[in-house]
Amino acid sequence: MTIVFVLISIAVLILLITWLKFNPFIAFLISSILAGFLLGIPPEQIAGSIQKGIGGLLGDLVIVIVMGAMLGKLVAESGAAQRISDTLMSIFGVKNVTWAMMITGLVVGIPLFYNVGFVLLIPLVFTVSYRYKLPAVYVGIPLLAALSVTHGFLPPHPSPAALVAQFEANMGLTLAYGILIAIPTIIIAGPIFAKFLKNIDSKPLEIFQAKAKPEEDLPSVFNSFFSALFPVFFLIGTTILTLNMSESNLVFPYIQFVGDPGMVMLISLLLATYTLGTRMKFSIPKLMDYYVVATKDVAMILLIIAGAGALKQVLMDSGVSLEIAAALQGWDVHPLVLAWVITALIRVAVGSATVAGLTTAGIIAPIVSTAGVDPNLLVLSIGAGSLMFSHFNDAGFWLYKEYFNLSVKDTIKSWSLMETLVAVVGLMGVMILDIFI
């Protein structure tokens, strides 16, 4: 019966979000309370479990996610994203436009949240499409594949960052592994898949053409790439140093301190505040206004993550997590594949990659220690599953459809299939990497 009660709680979560259109945070709280009662937690302890789950998960993530949102906003407003895109187009040329768009999405997508990256970069896609008379879907899919993969696979994006915290993985290693898997995944779901989409007729409105900044107002090429990618190199660099340095070394604790993901993002933001901010003649009050707007953009994401933490804690406090772990161990399925399947099913049912990933984490967390699975690869497996077949219940589906002015059929043929490719190829990459780690 225990497993049945868990399934009922998750089914209620899914119905609240998809059928009744509840806010995911409220849906998580209701499902957590229901799970607490069904699983036999004393009523006076349910509220405590929920509070503990919310605080425990957000404590690790608030700095990373908020600082990441602020950095992404600055990359957009300073013109660094425009400079990166223009530079790659000049290098690759019109013939290889899909590769230029793919790399633009990858570079800009690492610091930018998906919705911000979409709104920022899609006008550039339409500008290229109009200028060179190329199909908009053909030009845009490689960029969107890159944005989607960075959103699902790479910290400091909310879902992978939250999964790193839940599984006590190493954020630097997860990021390094994630990049290794992300690159071939994006190539297959981006430039290669785009070749089959040239016949899709898309007539995006001219209003969506990019309002480019004047050349003299843009940061330099080096400054743009350096500021956008600094947190990636810094995080990987400090991880490599700590793995290859004795704990008795005098500088080891200081490297651990600056290598903490929250400190990495804070240092990166402070650096970019100068390189892309005050150095580019932005006033401090103006920059702080940008940061306030960025924080508002991720407030609901933080609440969704908090709700997922509450459900996870209730499952743990009830003892059901151990029962689920024991049941899952009896399945003749590799834990990484199992995690992917569970996430993919919830993703298709709910529509939210973040909700799917964090819900799965609460279910499958106990097998991390008992099954000997690498927690960094588990983060990536769940991340891949969370991108499976975006359709009518996913806001990203409609965002893409309306911007590109497509029919539902063509949206499924391009966007939904691209997301499915990302999910499947991502899992294949995880399994190949698992052989060597």
From TrEMBL:
Naturally occurring in which organism (per UniProt): Indibacter alkaliphilus (strain CCUG 57479 / KCTC 22604 / LW1)
Name of the molecule in the record: Gluconate permease
Entry similarity comment: Belongs to the GntP permease family.
Major location (coarse): membrane
A Pfam family recorded for this sequence: GntP_permease
Subcellular location: Cell membrane
GO annotations of cellular component type: plasma membrane
One Gene Ontology term of the molecular function aspect: gluconate transmembrane transporter activity
Keyword Cell membrane: yes
Membrane topology: Multi-pass membrane protein
Transmembrane segments: 5-20, 26-42, 54-76, 96-122, 134-154, 174-197, 218-242, 254-277, 298-316, 336-365, 377-400, 420-436
Keywords, sorted A to Z: Cell membrane, Membrane, Transmembrane, Transmembrane helix, Transport
